[in-house]
Design goal:
By secondary structure, the chain is an all-alpha fold. The chain has helices at 2-18, 27-50, 54-69, 72-78, 109-114, 118-137, 139-151, 155-169, 171-182, 191-203, 212-221, 225-254. The termini are far apart.
Length: 255
C-alpha cells in the first residue's frame, strides 16, 4: 500500500510539472469580463433606442472598456506595480509622467489592439461610415431607384448587379447599403434578402479585394492580385452564377 501511495504521489507530481498552471482569477479580471459582456449587450439596446449603428456601438464599448482599465482605481484594484520615477534634486520628475500605475508588458487594451488587424478594422469602420454618409445624403436612395428602372423590378437582376459590385466595393458595406436602400420598402421575408446574402457572399470572392477572406489570403499567404485573378476569379464567378441559378431553380420547384 505504501508503494502504491508513493507511486500515486509521484504521478501527481509529474502531472503538476507537465500541466501548465491555470491563471489566477482576480477581482480585476472578473470586473473586465462583466464589463465586456455588459458593453456587448449595450450595442443592440443603443441600436433600438437611439438608432446608433452597431459598429459605432462596438467602438463606444471599446472606449468605455479602455477608459475603465486605464483608470487609477482599476490599477489599484488590480494591484499593478507602480513605476519608479527619476526625480531631480528639487523633486521635479526628469520626464513627464502620469499618476497612473505602470502596466506590465503584454497587458491592457493597447497591447490587445497590437495583436489585432488594425488595417482591416479601420478599413471597415471607414467604409461603413462612408455608407452611412451616402445614405444620409440620399445617394443610396437614388441608386436604388436607378437599379429598379434598369432591372425592371427583377430581384435576380438587382442582386446579380449587387453581387458583381461586391467584388469591387466589398461585400460588407454593400450588404449594409442594400439594407439602407431597400429596408423600408421590402418585407423581411422577401426573396431579395436571401439573394442579396447569396450574391454578396459569393460575388465578393470574384476579386481578392471583394471580401475579407481574399484580403486575409493575400496577407497571410503572400498571394498576389494577378495570381488570384488568373487562378481563382473564373471559378468564383462560375460559383456565383451557379449559386443564383440553383436558388431560382429551387424556388421554381418548391415554392
Amino acid at each position: 500500500q505504501q508503494q502504491q501511495q508513493q507511486q500515486q504521489r509521484q504521478r501527481q507530481q509529474q502531472q503538476q510539472q507537465t500541466c501548465p498552471a491555470l491563471p489566477e482569477v482576480t477581482r480585476s479580471k472578473v470586473l473586465v469580463l462583466i464589463l465586456g459582456v455588459v458593453c456587448i449587450l449595450m450595442v443592440p439596446v443603443l441600436k433600438m433606442t437611439t438608432g446608433l449603428p452597431p459598429y459605432l456601438g462596438m467602438l463606444l464599448a471599446l472606449g468605455i472598456l479602455w477608459f475603465v482599465t486605464d483608470s487609477t482605481a482599476f490599477h489599484s484594484l488590480a494591484r499593478l506595480p507602480r513605476e519608479e520615477i527619476d526625480v531631480e534634486a528639487d523633486g521635479t520628475p526628469k520626464r513627464p509622467t502620469s499618476s497612473h500605475a505602470a502596466e506590465p508588458e503584454g497587458w491592457g487594451v493597447v497591447e490587445a489592439l497590437h495583436k489585432m488587424d488594425l488595417t482591416g478594422l479601420l478599413f471597415f469602420a471607414g467604409v461603413l461610415l462612408a455608407v452611412g454618409a451616402l445614405d444620409t445624403a440620399g445617394v443610396l436612395h437614388s441608386y436604388a431607384e436607378m437599379l429598379r428602372r434598369i432591372c425592371k423590378g427583377s430581384s435576380v437582376a438587382i442582386c446579380s448587379l449587387l453581387g458583381v459590385s461586391s467584388a469591387i466595393v466589398d461585400n460588407v458595406p454593400l450588404v449594409q447599403a442594400s439594407i439602407n436602400m431597400f429596408g423600408e420598402e421590402m418585407p423581411m421575408d422577401d426573396p431579395l434578402w436571401q439573394l442579396t446574402a447569396l450574391a454578396a457572399g459569393t460575388g465578393g470572392s470574384i476579386l481578392s479585394v471583394g471580401s475579407i477572406a481574399g484580403v486575409t489570403l493575400m496577407t497571410m499567404e503572400g498571394v498576389g492580385y494577378l495570381w488570384y485573378c488568373r487562378r481563382v476569379s473564373l471559378w468564383a464567378a462560375l460559383g456565383f452564377a451557379g449559386g443564383i441559378g440553383t436558388y431560382e431553380l429551387e424556388r421554381l420547384l418548391f415554392a
